[in-house]
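Record type: monomer structure entry
Structure origin: computed from sequence
Chain ID: A
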Amino acid sequence: PGVAGGAFRLRFDVRSLALRVVEWGAHRRAAWAGLPYGDQALFVRRAVLEAIGGVAQVPIAEDLDLARDLRRHGRLALLPLAVSTSARRYQSNGVLRTWARNAVALAAWRRGVGRDRIARWVRG
């Protein structure tokens, strides 16, 4: 009853050491900061989703808004079951570069930088 929603463990559809490090980091971020990303297949109780007014219609980081709002209504459950996520972006842009871009976008979101600005930067 105290669970507002949650996410699955991230697992890429391609296996490599670098991507396993990203998977591990995503699990740590979700566990320590309570901020799973959408590619971890977020889920939410219907009553909570209605109480928060649904998913924010913003250009980027709606998954972070959802996770933050869920924590205000209860606990986030991080399931040990993995969801398969495409590694295409990491493969085409480079693992380190994609990870760094995501980290900077997360920091900008936390500091309240405008969504349009973050989206322009992330999407090039």
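Annotation 1: Helices lie at 17-33, 46-51, 62-71, 88-93, 95-110, 115-123.
Annotation 2: Strands lie at 3-12, 43-44, 75-85.
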